[in-house]
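Suppose you are handed only these lines of text.
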Amino acid sequence: MNQYLYEGNAAEVEKMTKDALAEGRTPQEILTEGLIAGMAVVGEDFKYNILYVPEVLIAARAMKAGMGVLKPLLAARDDAAIDADRAPVLLMGTVRGDLHDIGKNLVCMMAEGAGFEVHDIGVDQSVEKFMAAADKCKPQIIGMSALLTTTMTYMKTVIDGFEEAGRTDVSFAIGGAPISQMFADEIGADGYGADASAAVELFLKLVGHID
Ligand code: B1M
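From them, the structure of the protein bound to CO-5-methoxybenzimidazolylcobamide can be written out as follows.
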């Protein structure tokens, strides 16, 4: 599956994801060892100019084909999920200037599985767009994703924007490959998730569902 993902063969990645499920492998194992591991190799070769943007885009499409198969399973409410009638609202988006959405989409799927009502506003989102969306869906948590060192700084712009508007009724959670706990502390975010599971754990803590 790693190799097919690297080659951008979406049909094979989709088929192998289904086959792996039929063999009894868990969605988590397929995600981590099949899809994410394959994309890590793409990321390395991208860094050293062995692969270029078009090839990476095709690999991303193959990854999304596999994620499409896993989505109903990852987003299915798990046993420990928050009661549906008390579902806290999570607003998620990738920040302005950044078009990476695979990690954000994964976080959204797993948060749904934990019982959150998820509003995903997509990529390249400005502080104004986050505010307009927050007016509509009234989130307890705003989750922001950034994959570029040039866009991660925009997370502070969003947090400052809400603070300047006196909107302190919302918690901010952040994540993405270049993000660290130190950066989260520096920009005044309420927490950082290293991966989708850690992000969901953080969301549950922020709404007081776990300690
Ligand atoms: Co981009 N890209 N890319 N890219 N790309 C990176 C990020 C890069 C590290 C590659 C590299 O050089 N090795 C590099 C950034 C370098 C840097 O900033 N230091 C890079 C670059 C440079 C660029 C361009 C500038 C390239 C160019 O045009 N010259 C360009 C920028 C476009 C833009 O955004 N304006 C660009 C474009 C693209 C594509 C469009 C081709 C494609 C994105 C397709 C898409 O997302 N729809 C792409 C891809 C696929 C990657 C890599 C290869 C893979 C990213 C990915 O999907 N990983 C990436 C290399 C890498 O990360 N190693 C790279 C899989 C995903 C499951 O992991 O997104 O990390 P990740 O998400 C994780 C965690 O980070 C966390 O949970 C997820 C699940 O475990 N998480 C959160 C993520 N968001 C969270 C939010 C939370 C909590 C946790 O909220 C609370």
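What can we learn from it? The longest helix spans residues 53-74. The mean pLDDT is 96.
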